[in-house]
Amino acid sequence: MSLQSDTIAAISTPPGPGAIGILRLSGADAVSIAEKCFKPLGDSGLRRHAPRELVYGDLLDSGGQAIDQVLCTYSLGPHSYTGEDTAELQCHGSPMVLALGLEALFAAGARQAGAGEFTRRAFLNGRLDLAQAEAVGDLLEAQSREGARHAAGQLAGALSRRIGAVYSALVVVLAHFHAVLDYPDEDIDPFRLEQLDEALSGQEGELSALLATCGRGTLLRNGVPCAIVGRPNAGKSSLLNAMLGWERAIVTDIPGTTRDTVEERCELGGVPLRLVDTAGLRDTEDPVEKLGVERSRRAMEEAGLILVLIDASRPAGDEDLALLREAVKLAPTILVWTKGDLPAAPCPVKGYEEIGCPAVTVSARTGDLDELCSEISSAFPQDLWGGYGEILTNARQEEAARRAREAVRRAREALGAGVTPDALLTDVEEALSALGELTGQSVREDVTDRIFSKFCVGK
C-alpha cells in the first residue's frame, strides 16, 4: 500500500475546555509547518533544538499573531509514533486557541487528519501491526482496569507474539513441504510424518486455546452483563446507584417505579460489569409494567451474572425463593440481602441454603458493598482473563483465527489420509494467510478502512 505524502494535523485532546490541549502533525512537512506556526523564545529556531526536546514559545495564528504560550516538540521518522516526521504543540486547553492553532496549521500546508489516520500511518509504516493498532482503539474505549491492562498488553505486542509463535511453527512445516516438492525423488521418512502431525496438532491446539479467549475478550470490552432482579421495592435501583457511585436511577417507595431496564457500566471487585437494573418481578395487569417485567426476564436470560435482591427488613416469600431457583439455572447467581442497615426481619421460607449460591448483605444507604465486591471477584477471578493482552477481543480477530485453525485441521486430516504434499501445502498456506490477517501482514485495504474508521480524529 502506498502512503499519502501530505502532512496531516488534528486536535488530539477531547473537545471542551481543559488544562492542556494538543495539536498534532505528521508527514514529510510536519516540522516545517510547525516552524511557521511556532516561534521559540529567543533567537534559535525549532530545528536548532534536538528532536523530542520540549521547546517553549508562542503559538501563532494564521496572521502571525501570538495566541498562546506553548510547548513544542518534534520527532524525525522513522523514530516516531507514525514512522514519519511529527510535531506536537502543547497548548492551554482553550477550544478557541486550539481552533485558531489548527487553522494556522492548515494555512501553512497541513490538512485535516481523518479518523484514526495517525495510527493508520503507524501501521502502514510498520511501527505497529494490526493487532497492536486495534489495541489503541481498545485502550481509548477501556472502561475498566482489566480492560485497560489487556489493551496495554496487546499494544505492547503480547497477542502478536502469541500469533507469531504459531505462524513461525507453520512456516517450518511449510518449508518441509517445499523441500519435499523440490526433491520429489526423496521418500518422506515415517518418523518425519509423525513429527509433522505433532507439529500441526500442536498448532491446532494453540489456535483452539486462542479461540477459547474470545468470550473473555468480549466481556473485557463490553463488561459482564449483570442483571439486578427482585420483587418491587427490593432495593434494585438503590443498589445500582450505589454500585455506580451516582444517582442514575429514580428511587421511591412506590412499587413499580422502574418500568424499563436501565443499563450502565461500572467496575466492582476488579470485574467490568454492564449493570442492568430491571423492573420488579411480580404479576401485574398494568400493560406498561408487564412489558417491563418481560424485559426483566429477558435480561436474566442474557446475563453473565445475576444478582437476586431480597429485602432483608421484610419477611421473604415463596416468590423470592422461586426467583432465586430460576436465576441459578440461567447464570452464576449471588443472593443479595438488601437494606442491611435496617433491623432484619425473620425469614420463614426454608430452602435458601439448599440452592447453594453465595449470599451477601449490603446497604445501599451506607455504601457497604464489601461482601458483594468480594463475591463478584470470586466469581470472575483474575486468572480467568488470561495473560494481559493475549486474548482475542473482537469478531474480526476471532473469524481469522477460526479460519486458521480449520485450515490446520484440514492439513492434519490430509496428512493422515496420505494426500500429496502439494495439497497439504495449500492448507498450510491458507492458515498462514489467515494468521497474517490478524497482524496485518495480508489484510485487505477495505478491512483496514473499517478498523480505523472507528477511531477518533487525532489518534
Task: Give the helices and strands, then pairings.
Layout lengths: L7 E4 L6 E9 L3 H8 E3 L14 E6 L5 E10 L10 E8 L1 H13 L3 E2 L4 H8 L5 H12 L3 H11 L2 H25 L7 H22 L2 H9 L1 E7 L5 H9 L17 E7 L2 E7 L9 H16 L2 E7 L6 H13 L2 E6 L13 H4 L3 E3 L8 H10 L15 H22 L4 H19 L5 H8 L7
Parallel strand pairs: 1-7, 8-10, 8-11, 11-12, 12-13
Antiparallel strand pairs: 1-2, 2-6, 3-4, 4-5, 5-6, 9-10
Helix pairs in contact: 4-5, 6-7, 6-15, 7-14, 14-15
Could you list some keywords that capture this structure?
single chain, 459 residues, alpha/beta, seven-stranded mixed beta sheet, six-stranded mixed beta sheet, 13 strands, disordered N terminus
Q: For the CA atoms, what is the radius of gyration? A: 29 Å
Total DSSP E strands? 13
User: Strand sequence of the main sheet, in spatial order?
Assistant: 3-4-5-6-2-1-7
Which stretches are low in confidence, meaning pLDDT under 50 for 5 or more residues running?
1-5, 250-259
Shape type = flat
What structural class do helix, strand and pairing data support? alpha/beta
Report the β-strand fraction as a percent range. 15-25%
The overall average pLDDT, rounded, is 82
Helical residue percent band: 40-55%
Amino- and carboxy-terminal Cα gap: 20 Å
Number of helices: 16
Order of helices and strands: EEHEEEEHEHHHHHHEHEEHEHEHEHHHH
Largest sheet: 7 strands, mixed
